[in-house]
Design a protein that fits this description.
The protein has about 200 residues and is an alpha/beta fold. About 50% of the residues lie in helices and about 15% in strands. The longest helix has 13 residues, at about 65-80. It is an enzyme of class 3 (hydrolase).
């Protein structure tokens, strides 16, 4: 294998994160969906970056909504995590890497609430040698600081790491720092070829 360490993103790499699918589990009509989407997702980037408080944002968002949608929004903020469905091929690949003794790490943009919940909700994370979520650090990809944090915290050399992410900007940032990467589209076989697994 060409690389000593494999680094994974979470959303759409380990678990399927599709905002329209998730919100669709809570909204009962197209009209409600549109109202909720505008309110709920407007601060999502800031939540991932940790620049706003998760609970305060939830309360502020709920307060802006029509009364008939307040309970729906509250339910969403408390329970959306359960609709980030595992991607089985990635989970199997993670187990294959661990069986070979390959160190694996997580570098993911995520809110503080997801960072708290994920290790409990996704048992595959117990396989990881190190986990970095963005919001608790108040930094996020594609900013370089969070990559440096990962390298420094776990004593990793970028040239010895391979990064798997579903966002072009994050892949570009990793390459700028000397870490080879792949834009993940769901094709684990492409990843295996890239790392000569």
């Amino acid at each position: 294998m060409r690389y000593k360490n494999i680094i994974f993103d979470f959303g759409n790499v380990i678990g399927k994160f599709k905002g329209d699918y998730i919100l669709g589990k809570f909204a009962s009509t197209p009209e409600d969906y549109n109202i909720l989407a505008d309110a709920i997702f407007k601060n999502w980037v800031a939540l991932d970056a940790g620049t706003i408080d998760y609970d305060q944002n939830a309360e502020d968002t709920i307060a802006e909504l029509p009364d008939r949608l307040k309970d729906t929004a509250r339910d969403f903020f408390e329970n959306w995590f359960q609709y980030v469905d595992p991607l089985p091929e990635t989970w199997e690949f993670i187990k294959e890497l661990k069986a070979r003794g390959v160190p694996i790490y997580l570098l993911s943009n995520a809110s503080t609430r997801f960072a708290e919940r994920a290790p409990e909700d996704y048992p595959i994370l117990k396989e990881f040698d190190g986990i970095v979520f963005s919001a608790p650090l108040k930094m996020a990809k594609p900013g370089h600081d969070i990559y440096y944090h990962l390298f420094n915290k776990y004593d990793l050399l970028p040239s010895e790491c391979f990064f798997i992410d579903d966002t072009v900007e994050n892949v570009i940032a990793s390459k700028e720092l000397g870490m080879e990467s792949i834009l993940f589209t769901g094709d684990i076989e492409a990843v295996k070829r890239a790392i000569e697994f």
